[in-house]
Amino acid sequence: MRRRSRAPLLEERVSALTTAVELGEGTVPPARLRPAREVLERAGARSALAPGVTVAALLGATGSGKSSLFNALVGEPLSAVHARRPTTTQPLAAVWDAPGATGLLDWLEVPDRRLRPTDPALSGLVLLDLPDIDSTRVENRAVAARLAERVDALVWVLDPQKYADAVVHEEYLRPLREHAAVSVVVLNQADRLPADELPGVLAHLRQVLADDGMGDVELLTTSARTGAGVPELRSRLARLAGEGRAARERLEADVRTVAGSLRDTAGGGSSAPDAGDLVDVCASAAGVREVVTAVERSYRRRAGRHVGWPPLRWLGRLRPDPLRRLHLESPAAGASSLPAPTPAQEAGVRTGVHDLAWGATEGMAEPWRGAVTQRTEDRVPVLVDALDTAVAGTDLGAEHRPSWWRLWSVLGLLLFTTALAGAAWLGALAVLGYLRLPEPETPMAGPLPWPTALLLGGLVAGLLLALAGRLLARVGARRAARRARGRLSAAVEGAATRVMVEPLRADLDRYREFSAAVELAAR
Questions:
Q1: Distance from C-alpha of 117 to C-alpha of 105, rounded to nearest angstrom
Q2: Binning pLDDT at 50, 70 and 90, where does residue 332 land?
Q3: Considering just the CA atoms, what is the radius of gyration of the chain in Å?
Q4: Fewer C-beta neighbours within 10 Å, C or N terminus of the chain?
Q5: Sign (positive or negative) of CA dihedral 335, 337, 343, 349
């Protein structure tokens, strides 16, 4: 058998709502968070004031007989009752042995207080008679509305003629449907109804309350004139005071209500951001292809200065190094000289960022989805700058010199020196012949004289070595380009992750935490 989860305590709800408000700051519209802030302020203030005291208030429309019922409950005419409306213009408090009630009533802004004789049944109770909720005076309605938000228990006094009045149900009972546990609905002046009509009126009233979402609220009938039902209502108030839970239950209901109003900004799903497509467009915007081409050409240029035919190696110095021209010859070179992304490339980055955020926030409730997507898109300029920094800071291997370059360089110089030696030998023989001096015997290397063999051998072998070196340099350049592409892709992915993906993940985590906090507070 599956066990039902325990309902959160008030402190847990308040903590969760506090977390939700903090996380929603800057994302959820302030107007949506304002009621939650007000409830948290009230919860903090009420919890610190007279925790053993229960404040109950009689609320109702004009002519419902609140003041008469108040007097009947108190046992004497403390509240003025007149035919002229409105009668009650300021709240009146009847206080029964309620330690700390002074500070509590100061907070409630109820200056008119009447201490009642000791009554063990009502000890700890403060009963308020409030102005009409539909008073023709705006200030009276404001007082009633303010205290309806702050008192611990709500006694709704209705009369047979206006028990379905829209003001009571649409503006008060329906929004306070979570407060059924600390509410009592009283059909007052029941003596004005014929006995055979009372059951039908009560049945209709119960249906109206069910439509308000308060089907479980306690419903009593009273008559201040005859005293019918007054003892039952007095006993209900005594139970509220005796149990001492009304203040906490009211605050819990307040927290559930405001948290429930935030549910449409929470819940829903989100997924892990996939930055694959974004990395591709970022690589294009960062000029990775151009840099890879420059790495390949730079490798071939530098290789030519080591493995080319010695007499022609100096020609390589006449061509500028592609990496040096881009200021990418060293990771410590600073910012690169790569051209800025074209409008099409930057538009591609923006599209990639939007698709990243929009895909990760699919199923997320508004306004979170729009806010998270906008925050992500606002980081595009930062991403563009980070891409250039990432490329400039990548070690492209421009300072690496393979060991075979040295071997080729030494062999090339040796062969060229051999050719020079042969040429010098032949030159010396030519000079001796020109001067008609005796020529020494020239040794033979097979069919060729040694000087000729040295010259031809050095030239042919040197040219073949240079050709082989050029072919090997092409292979090495392609390998260097592949390594550079991998390093640049990793650098671009790192920049995209740091600037876009990680903040987006933080926003998604924040949203999930916000949703969990709202759900806990509203449960």
A1: 18
A2: low
A3: 45
A4: N
A5: negative
